[in-house]
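seq as requested:
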Amino acid sequence: MLALLNQRYPDRLPEGLDLSCVRFALCGSAPVPVPVMDEFEKKFGVLVVEGYGLSECACRATFNPPNRNRRPGSIGVPIGSEVKIFDDQDNELPVGETGEIVLRGPNIMKGYFKTIRPMRRPCEMAGYTLAMSDTAMRKDSFIWSIAKTI
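struct tokens:
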């Protein structure tokens, strides 16, 4: 949507458009290229923040703070749930390593209705939910999406 708005208004915004009540624009379906975010922010004067969530959790699992502490291009920091990065052997990875996003918390669903899975991974046995094989890495306290599985 941001790229579309950038293209729709390449030179100037519509006359009389008042965005003074808009604090920020939230994106979360897929990573937004930082140049697209930068262009939108300069053109519209509205901060862009990214978050990450999936249908297995209520609302978002991560959110980039809508202030100067945000990291453009990051999916933010965990909110309301525990977010970790694991390898394919279900070991938690250190900061800077790329792996699979796993979630745990009261807002994360425990399974699907009437679905029985005979084999579960160790991380699931510990209460984590796999994030659809989405991959990410952690830098400081922020999480960076590497690839999203659709």
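Residues 2-147 form a domain with the Rossmann fold fold (CATH 3.40.50.12780).
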